[in-house]
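Entry for the shared binder. Reason: the reviewer on the internal report wants the predicted structure included alongside the sequence.
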Amino acid sequence: MGQNKIVYSQKLSSIIFILMATLCLLEPWIIFSKTKIPEKYRRWLEEEVVYIITPREKEVFLQLDNDRDRETFIKAFWKHRDPTPGTQENEYKKEHYRRLDYANNHFGYGSPKPGWQTDRGRIYIILGEPQSREIYENQRELKDTEIWFYQNVSQFGLPSAFHVVFYRDDFSGDYKLYRPTVDGPIKFFIQTPPLDPADYLACYEYLKMYNSTIAEVSLSLIPGDSSLFNAQPSLASELLLQNIELKPQKEVDDIYAQKFLYYKSLVEVEYSTNYIRCDYFVQPIFESSGTFSIHYAISPKRLSVNEFNGLYSTSFLLNGIVSDSNGKLIYQFEKRYEIKLEAEEMRGKTKIPFIIQDMFPIIPGEFNFSVLLKNTVSKEFTSFEEIITIPHRQGERTPIMIPPLLAYARRDVSDNIKAFRPFQVDNYLLFIDPQNIFLPSDKLIIFSQIINLNEPIKKSCIIRISIKKNEEVVKSIDYPLANYLNPENKLNILEEMSLQSLPPAHYCLEIQVLDTSGKIILSSSKFFSITASSFIPRPLIKANALPKEKAFLNNFIIGLQFFNAQQYQKALPFFIKAHSHQPNNPLMAAYLGKTYFLLNQIANAESIFEPFINEKDGNYEIYFYAALTAKKKLNYRKALRLLQETINKFGVNTTILNHIGDCHLALNEKSLALAAWQKSIELNPDQPQIKDKINNLTKK
């Protein structure tokens, strides 16, 4: 009984496996039936590019819900395959449709399927015209056979020379792709000879009597393959056939498709087809101000510029977004970077890495940080997304180590510290490469931080910096932790290690805090590589600096982030500091006043708003919240006056009209309240609460 159960279970598992595999194969068609894309685009996807589109591209295309996006995607699809993007003609696209037409005109004859669906059509569309084609038809005892020979297609895992073989089971049927490991030499015979199909040597020798050329490719599609000597079907041939099928997918970097889907509503159409890859680096650093900053670098793979009278220039527009795990916007910013280079400076710069570096303060928490960078000259864009975790300090007793930052150089800026710069640590400016590639002659600059230190760690522990290769320590140095202590309960580790004795390879830099017994208390690591090259083109850097006299802006940004996170009590002290530096700035006044209002500190809110009320242009939120402040104090006449002034200066909206109705009702001016609410419903009928107020008022 038990044995029967086991057999049943195995059969059931097999059935489930087959069903799942079938569903996987059917999945694209199931999606098609749900999305119901127009016939034009269904044909493009299922017929025209079926063999060259990657799974990621297909998945993205199926998620597009309008023809405008589909057309733009198709344009991007061909653009990312264009071998000469600077010219009008797309040679790849032209050649692909030539192959498609050839397949339909030459390989559909005698087959119930169109030429592009046949095995020969598929291989022709993928590989193009073979160097030679041998056709064997009407042979005694043997099926019709074609042998195609390809040479100098050694990219993407393909050998320098190989054959592709087709046969057909009957004289009027379609040619099928021959697979040595699946079919074997016996497959070429019209009538199965009296041989054991598994005796490949016997089958090979028997086939050789009829056609030695077919016999040679029956065991291996690759000339000189050892299978000919072993008399066994070639596994290398099976790998070859798999790589042929995958070749079109390896020809394109399809990350653009994912970026297209993500950013299609955020970038203009002229940018959407021009995604380029980038390297990037993001590092949180605990500043002497007591808050964290995010230092980041983004390096587009290509620098495209305009040339005019020997001056090369372009302009980058960078948009940054920080949101929490629920998608709530915490901080958003936009910055512009102008690049101008003389002819001598520009020489070779299109191939030299170009990096934009910047920084901004950040509140504690876990966030999604995304950057969109647009080259306004070339209409190219690139982007990155990163999850960042910023630890809390107040009330934390557990020490935390910030992941290490590796730099290839540092510069002492202690004599000229007049600004905050990206990747500036204490008195040093660190030069980083997002790829973390170093020369053997480089000194590896290592930076890390430990915060929330407790007394036992301060007094007795050591810092161990190790370089590992394949988990084996190849270099290690210990430092007393006390060497790095400072009054801020923050420990900055800034050391350098020579790479001179290390051979080119991939390595791991590890920083550990060890107690007196050798127990690891804290640990963090970063991977890097040492190259065998004698030279690395170091990046051309464009970075913004924040003058120290404008440091109050960081207080405003921190306050803004706490405000957007609805942590108003934490936002308040930062807004107060920012406002104290620029008391006449309406934006800072608006946020400080709003924060006072939301914390129910009405008198403070009123005192902040009052000086800005009679300004010529004014600030919408100051007028609006000043009106709400007056309403909160039950001064309805003042609230109505301020709400009317808000309409006069900035226009009407339903929120203002609803508050006007509330004020009139509080003053027992029911007809005026009704008129305001009815006007609000005209602007937006979907307001059930306002409709209830109107109904209650009209019933009375």
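Summary line for the report: The two ends are 81 Å apart (CA to CA).
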